[in-house]
Amino acid sequence: MNSNTPDTTLGLSNVNHLERLYDGWFLDYASYVILDRAVPYFEDGLKPVQRRILHSLFENHDGRYQKVATIVGRTMAYHPHGDASIGDALVTLGQKGLLIDTQGNWGNPLTGDDAAAPRYIEGRLTQFAVDVVFNPETTEWIPSYDGRSEEPVTLPVKFPLLLAQGVDGIAVGLSTSILPHNFRELCEASIAILKGKKFTLYPDFFTGGIIDVSDYNDGMRGGKVRVRAKIEKVDNKTLAIREIPYGTTTTSLIDSIVKANDKGKIKIKHVDDNTSKNVEILIHLQPGTEPQVAIDALYAFTDCEKSLSPCTCVIVNKHPKFIGVSEILRMNTEHTVKLLQWELENERKHLEDKWHMTSLEKIFIEKEVYEVIKKARDRDEMVNLIDEGLKPYVKRYLRRSVTREEILKLAEIPVRRISRFDRKKADELLAELDEKLAQNKYNLEHITDYAIDHFKNILKKYGEGRERKTQIAEFGKVNAVHVALANQKLYVNRKEGFVGTGMKKEEYLFDVSNYDDLIVFKADGSFKIVKVSDKDFVGKDIILVEKFNKDDERHIYNVIHQDGKDGTAYIKRFNVGGVTRDKDYYMGKNKPGSKILYLSSNMNGEAEVVEVTLKPRPRIKLNFEVDFSEVEVKGRGAIGNIVTKYPVKHVKRIRKGVSTLGARVLYFDAPSGIVSTQRKGDRIGEFDEKDKLLIIKENGTARIHDMADPILVGSNIKYLHKFDPAQVFTILYFEGGNYNYMVKRFNLEGCPMTTEFSLVTDHKDTKMIELFATDDARQLMEYQVGREVQKEELDLTEVADVKGYKALGSKFTAKKVKRTSRISPPDSFDDGTSDEGEDEGDPKLF
Q1: Which CATH superfamily is domain 33-157 in?
Q2: pLDDT score of 547
Q3: Between residues 839 and 732, which one has the greater pLDDT?
């Protein structure tokens, strides 16, 4: 090397060389991960590792169980990765219970317990997998990674397996999350597609639970579903969870409950996990805890409610595509039709070949063409002689020409078979083959009907026991503010302007939760909304701090304020409404020297009378009364009406006022379980300040609520109405203690006013059948008497007398009740005179 030549070993030229060397490698890696690792193919809904596991199982399928260690080892011949990844994928497939029949401890997806070691557990293909997933004749093959064998590009799955099992995968730059759907509903939807009918698809989970699909968006990006555990009230001190949300385990769910309790968000004594084959988590509540509030708190602060975000990404024509589950099902259904057509065409070819050879053998033997073999001196001459002997019959009896290979097969027929040839059996076989060919032709011409029958057969053969497990329901989001425990004390330093839960040496105000908002009024005529915190500076000279609810339209503030130093005094009434946190709002124009002269907070729009005293001034009356009821309620930005232009000494209340807003109209929003004045949900009626709300649930428990706004009543509500202790109710219920149907009529005089009480017995098998809050209480009863079903129309008001709510009621029949149904009263006459919006006071049954 020339000493004058610069050494570029570590120079720029080699850097450029390295860039060229690695150029495109990341793109190749990304493509590999997307196509061959993480994202499923729409044709069979499988990732490569799953496909190779199933192919390996089918290759060695003999109906007997195989050790998982053996399955993993055989799969490694096709999957160039470690045994751990294959084992994990195999266990996941087995736990889904659709393609692999498992034996041994395969783990528990409900509890999160791992499977036993591969050498201890076994598996084999289910009959469903054998029937629906495999067919070597309709499979496209490619060489395996080492070239020693062949593996399928995709398996010929004649069922929407992708949507039935669901899948999660994270690739480079994209991910997929397809939720599982119900087996039976998929078959029915595929049938609907083939019939040209509409269909809808929603997820279904093996864990059960409840799902809100309002925002599912067909599984596309941006959609979401919310899933909940099913929480039952065992008694006033115990809750039970027997179905958990998808994506959780009993272990993770209990951990989230314990953490919420440790942070003071919920109040529980302890949790018992009795899960074995089925889920059972018992939650023991602290004394005094309202069960419904505890249930809603569990939904708000634990994994008892979760949000899932689907993202349906699949491989279509070697490219990842984001499409909805409805489109995936259409593509799957069309693909199934093509596979069925391919199978029918293969079947036709086999039938035609068999018919041809059977006819050829019949001619060869019946016409004694085999005799020419004796004359042949060699193989070629034998073929020519047989061919010549068959020629007179080919066009007359056969449907295609004869090949050399077929002639050689004829020549190999043993003499014993020729001697035992039965013409009748040959004709019967040919007739049977003709029937099959005719049926095959019909199926090909009516391929859509054939595909419909295919899905119906799957549904009939494998659909039993695969009914929907997850209940579809619309439920509102639980507002944490409504269920959070007020477990912290709030303090204030009025002069310096601080509020918070950590200022224990300052003035105590009231208890709060971390989810509460506070409204703070200051002497300078400003107010602001802040979140509860440890210590927050809100402004000096605080005069009022209280909890704030932006949706409470009936909370009215009455204010007299002075706009500027010695300026005009104004009076105003306003509701705060929606505001921005941590922003100062002003009563007037924020002039220097402005101040609040009088302030009252009124939960129901009360309007008091105050006395205004002026500073001494010649020829001016020094005091006069002001009635807030004469002032109109306006927005918070209004400056108000003039009270006086003279300096005010002080203002004091002289008479307590009443509400100027009239009776409040309450509405029940069933999804969120909240009763409020927010005009959301079903209208209950008008309520004055002294009125109370009666709530009866489907399980027969009742409670009377004061008119706070909002009221969290929860779900499974049967009756909501204004409480009237003299109102007579009629209940038909099944008494679990004596195993009889009972009728009771009662009023609620003397019932508890602050705690929940039961209208039926507490026996675990007791069930309320019907509740009537009117005089018309008729029920159609159907009795099983021997083999006959007898019907009786029963007026329940004649069965039992009106007694107290604790009365057991009257037994009205000794017959076996098969079915009951409510008889609706005849429509009342409408003369068109009722005013729109008038509260008729009709009871609300839900």
Answers
A1: Topoisomerase II, domain 5 (3.90.199.10)
A2: 92
A3: 732
